[in-house]
Amino acid sequence: MENSEKTEVVLLACGSFNPITNMHLRLFELAKDYMNGTGRYTVVKGIISPVGDAYKKKGLIPAYHRVIMAELATKNSKWVEVDTWESLQKEWKETLKVLRHHQEKLEASNCDHPQNSPTLERLGRKRKWTEKQDSSQKKSLEPKTKAVPKVKLLCGADLLESFAVPNLWKSEDITQIVANYGLICVTRAGNDAQKFIYESDVLWKHRSNIHVVNEWISNDISSTKIRRALRRGQSIRYLVPDLVQEYIEKHNLYSSESEDRNAGVILAPLQRNTAEAKT
C-alpha cells in the first residue's frame, strides 16, 4: 500500500499527568509502532493534554506545574507535544469535547493550507498553450486538498474499564468517542481489555475502531505510585524523565499535604453527570 493511501493519525492522550511518567511516554511509542505496523495508518503526531484544575481529582496539583512537567518530558521528542487548551479551561471539559476541539483545529488548519498542485507554481509564467491544452490542464491546476489526519484517543486499559463506572461517563459520549474517533488502548499487566470490550455492547459494536495494543515488556509505573514514593522520601529516578524529577524536587510538589488536595470533593464528571441524570 502506498503511503498516500494510508490514513494519517494524531494520537491524543488526555489525563491528569500528575506527574507525567516514563510509562505515559511509552504509550505513545507503543501505539505508534502498532498503528504504523498495520500498514493502514501513519501516525503523524502525538498530543498530551493535561486535564484542568476543575476536574477536582484528589491529589491533583495545579495544571501549571503538570503542563510544565509534560513539556519537560517531551522536550526531546520529535513528534509528541503538549497542548494547553484543556488545562486552561475554567470548567472541566469532557474528553469528547477535547477530541472534537483537536479534530476541528486540524480541519481548520487544513483549510488554511491546502496542498496545491505543483503546476500552480508555474501559473505566473508566460504560457503558449493552445485552448485545447489549457482546457485539458484545468483539473490538474485546481488545488488538491490533503486529507485531514484523524484524531484518536490514546489510553491505557484503566481508562477503557472506567467506562463502566456509573456516572463517570455519559453513555452517548462513549458511543461518539468509539464510533467517530476511535481508541488505541495499551494494555497493562492484569488488564483484559478484549474481555471488557466483549462484555460491552457499545464497545463490541465499534470494536473495529478500537485498537488493543499488547505491551509485552511489562511496565507497571503509575503516577499514584510515583506520588506515594515521593511522600515516603523514596527515589523516583528512572521512573520519570530526569528533568521532571528535578522540577518536582525544586518545587517540592508532592507531599502528604498535596495528596489531600480536593479531599472530600466529588469528581467533576460525577457531579455533572449525576446532576443531569436527576433532571
UniProtKB/TrEMBL annotation:
CDD domains: NMNAT_Eukarya (cd09286). Its EC number is 2.7.7.1, 2.7.7.18. The keyword Zinc applies. Pathway: Cofactor biosynthesis; NAD(+) biosynthesis; NAD(+) from nicotinamide D-ribonucleotide: step 1/1; Cofactor biosynthesis; NAD(+) biosynthesis; deamido-NAD(+) from nicotinate D-ribonucleotide: step 1/1. It is found in: Nucleus. Its main location: nucleus. Residues 130-144 have a biased composition (Basic and acidic residues). Residues 107-144 are annotated as: Disordered. It catalyses: nicotinate beta-D-ribonucleotide + ATP + H(+) = deamido-NAD(+) + diphosphate; beta-nicotinamide D-ribonucleotide + ATP + H(+) = diphosphate + NAD(+). Keywords: ATP-binding, Magnesium, NAD, Nucleotide-binding, Nucleotidyltransferase, Nucleus, Phosphoprotein, Pyridine nucleotide biosynthesis, Transferase, Zinc. GO terms for biological process: NAD+ biosynthetic process. GO terms for molecular function: ATP binding; nicotinamide-nucleotide adenylyltransferase activity; nicotinate-nucleotide adenylyltransferase activity. GO terms for cellular component: nucleus. InterPro entries: Cyt_trans-like, Euk_NMN_adenylyltrnsfrase, NadD/NMNAT, NMNAT_euk, Rossmann-like_a/b/a_fold. Its cofactor is Mg(2+); Zn(2+). Residues 12-228 form the Cytidyltransferase-like domain. NCBIfam families: nicotinate (nicotinamide) nucleotide adenylyltransferase. Homohexamer. Interacts with ADPRT/PARP1. Belongs to the eukaryotic NMN adenylyltransferase family. PANTHER family: NICOTINAMIDE MONONUCLEOTIDE ADENYLYLTRANSFERASE, NICOTINAMIDE_NICOTINIC ACID MONONUCLEOTIDE ADENYLYLTRANSFERASE 1. This is Nicotinamide-nucleotide adenylyltransferase.
